[in-house]
Amino acid sequence: MAEFWFAGHGFAAERCSDGMEIALVIALLCAPLGVATIVFVEWPRRAEPTVAKITRSRYGDSVTIPPQPYDRRPLGRDLGIGLLIGAVFASTNFWVDARLSERTDRTEAAREERETQREDLRFVREAVMAEREQMPFAGLDLRGAPLSGFDLTGATLTGTNLAGADLADVVLRDADLTGADLTAADLANADLFAATLTDADLTDAELAWGHLGWADLSGATLVGADLLGAELEGVGLRGADLRGADLKGADLSVADLSDAELAGADLRGADLTDARLDGVDLADVLHSDSTTWPAGVATPSEPMADVVIEMNAAS
Known about the structure:
By secondary structure, the chain is mainly alpha-helical. 26% of the residues lie in helices and 3% in strands. The protein contains two helices and two strands; from the N terminus they run αββα. The protein has helices spanning 18-41, 73-129, and strands at residues 53-57, 60-64. The protein has a two-stranded antiparallel ribbon with strand order 1-2. A hairpin with a 2-residue loop joins strand 1 and strand 2. The longest helix is centred in the N-terminal third of the chain and has 57 residues, at 73-129. The model is unreliable at 1-16 (pLDDT under 50).
């Protein structure tokens, strides 16, 4: 396979086949040649007058018309049109081949990606089944992986992609998930006691009735996360983004929420006894009369009506 590098033309290291190269060369040659042929051959010029010769004799007058020179203009015009048509076909062939090549590359990349995910999931399952003490799962691609109920105590999952993974009822006590991608992951009723999730992305994650006591979520993103009834006692949420998070009935006692973003968060029925709220703007949080605030913290706004929180049957 040959390679074309179209630097400065908007093409970023596009790889072309030999057939595509030939088509492109033909198009680049035929187009200007066709235009030049039509322009120069068909350029307007004065036609020379035709002079007839009249010969008189006793048998009568005869008219002789001299032969005209061969007009090559129609041939040039046809040649130019042919070159232009060739350029159009060659350009079309180049475009089609380029699109097919891109589709093939995308298909191959998707296939390799799926194969990598299967291998990573197989590695995790084998480690869990063998009850290995060391679980080095850092950087694996486990998107959408079915890991519900797995015991991953103490596992290393730094930078691991767990977006959309099924982690319901999973045990991740003391696990290291620093910088992990857990967007839209299902962690309902998961055990994350003392786990490290600093800078992790838990946007839209399902953490209802989860056990996250004394976990470190400093700098984590929990925008829109569902933490209904979650155990968050002593959890570190310093600088975390909890905008729009559902924390109804959550236990946030002794939690560190310093400098956290809580705009639109629902704290109705939540327990924030002895929680740290330094630098937190509570103007836009939702709360109710059953919300327990730390001593000395004024109620940020008018409370909303209480909601009935049904306890999870598994808790």
